[in-house]
Every structure is written in structure tokens, then in C-alpha cells.
Amino acid sequence: NNLSHPLATTLAIAALALKIGLAPVHFWLPEVLQGLDLLTGLILSTWQKLAPFALIVQLAPAIDPMLLTMLGLASTLVGGWGGLNQTQLRKILAYSSIAHMGWMVIVLQYAPQLTLLALGTYIFMTSAAF
């Protein structure tokens, strides 16, 4: 009921991070995306991220900046390193999604409009890849 409390915002961000596949709760995304058909994989990589990311944008002023920075940094590193040794395109796209979401969460603290532009560009480019 009161999302200005640090525990409530941390739990809300943890749940939203799980939904969009941010590290350290990203482990489900590469395996699930690998097993889906192309249309469902496209929806999982793009459309599914809109609502949780909109909530993160709204909660951003109440969230501890260090938490967002750590989630973003972990996602960027995991996404970059995880995709290096992959040979399957869908897993590469999954790790790319993790890395892109990490960059967006880091930038969100400083320029929310730029983050929304990056999300739109990410959705457009990922749709073309699928």
C-alpha cells in the first residue's frame, strides 16, 4: 500500500526484474526463449516487457539508485558474457535482451525519456531480428 517504504519498493523491483529478465533473476529467459516458436518468442522478447518497464519507470524516483545501478550493471555483464559462447540465435537474442534491459535500467535514473526511446528502438530491432 505504501511504495515509499524501502522494503516495498525493493520487493516490487525484484518482481518486475524477474518479469523482464534482469540479472540476477534472469536464468529462465534463455532456456524459455530457446524452446518457443518465433511468434511467441517475439512476444516474450518485446511485448511482455512493456508493462513491467512502465511500472519501473513510474517507480524509479522512489527506488534506491544503488539498487537500480547494481541490477543494471549485473544484467549488462551477464548479458554480454552469457552471449559470447552461444551458437543458437535465440539464446543470443535472450542474452542480448538481458544486456539491453540492463543498460536501460542504468540510463533510466538519469534520462527516462531516453530510456523509453531506447526501449522503442530495442523493440523495433528485435522484431526485425525475429
Automatic annotation (TrEMBL):
It catalyses: a ubiquinone + NADH + 5 H(+)(in) = a ubiquinol + NAD(+) + 4 H(+)(out). It is found in: Mitochondrion inner membrane. The chain crosses the membrane at residues 6-29, 66-84, 105-125. Keywords: Electron transport, Membrane, Mitochondrion, Mitochondrion inner membrane, NAD, Respiratory chain, Translocase, Transmembrane, Transmembrane helix, Transport, Ubiquinone. GO terms for molecular function: NADH dehydrogenase (ubiquinone) activity. It is a multi-pass membrane protein. It comes from the Eukaryota. GO terms for biological process: mitochondrial electron transport, NADH to ubiquinone. Its EC number is 7.1.1.2. Residues 7-130 form the NADH:quinone oxidoreductase/Mrp antiporter transmembrane domain. Pfam families: Proton_antipo_M. GO terms for cellular component: mitochondrial inner membrane. Belongs to the complex I subunit 2 family. Core subunit of the mitochondrial membrane respiratory chain NADH dehydrogenase (Complex I) which catalyzes electron transfer from NADH through the respiratory chain, using ubiquinone as an electron acceptor. Essential for the catalytic activity and assembly of complex I. This is NADH-ubiquinone oxidoreductase chain 2.
